[in-house]
């Protein structure tokens, strides 16, 4: 909501500078070092627009609520990454990727499984070590509930395994997004 309020407060020209598609490589190009970059600068914004851009909200006054939300959400996100990497690579290795992708497309037509495969593989390859650590924290938190952290623990194992392959040099240019099939082939050839 905060992001939408910010975008709604911009002119059409400003919105064109400030908004990028989710899939764009531009979203990975952020840091605090001053330099020329795409996007809209704070100097181009009116004071009211700047306020909308910095309108962060407190999740809860209670300690741990924001962390619980983030860690529970992360199980879904990192879990989907891990499932896609594992199942797409296995399907490719077994020669059934076409059928698996067709079945997924039929079951979940709102997803572009090819594009999501590319994206999800790249996220795990680039950030698997950190994601595995986060999943271990999620598993520990969930273990404090009656459900236990079984899935989060398994997700940490898969993320760790991809991070280990990266350390071994299995992935050519690991920070560069590449088609998921190329990444799966790199893992299959490792065996």
Protein model, in words:
With 191 residues, this protein is an all-alpha fold. Helix content is 64%, strand content 0%. It has helices at 2-8, 12-18, 47-53, 65-94, 97-107, 113-143, 150-167, 180-190. Helix 1 runs antiparallel to helix 3 (47-53) and helix 4 crosses helix 6 (113-143). 20% of the residues are buried. The mean pLDDT is 88.
Q: Helix-strand pattern, N to C?
A: HHHHHHHH
Distance between the termini: 46 Å
Helix content: 55-70%
Count every beta strand, where a strand is a DSSP E run of 2 or more residues.
0
Rg from alpha-carbon coordinates? 20 Å
The major pleated sheet works out as: none
Q: Enumerate how many helices there are, as a single number.
A: 8
**How large is the share of residues in beta strands?**
under 5%
Shape: globular
Label this structure with key terms:
191 residues, mainly alpha, 8 helices, globular
Topology, element by element:
Layout: H1 2-8, H2 12-18, H3 47-53, H4 65-94, H5 97-107, H6 113-143, H7 150-167, H8 180-190
Helix pairs in contact: 1-3, 4-5, 4-6, 4-7, 4-8, 6-7, 6-8
Give a short summary of the structure.
With 191 residues, the chain is mainly alpha-helical.
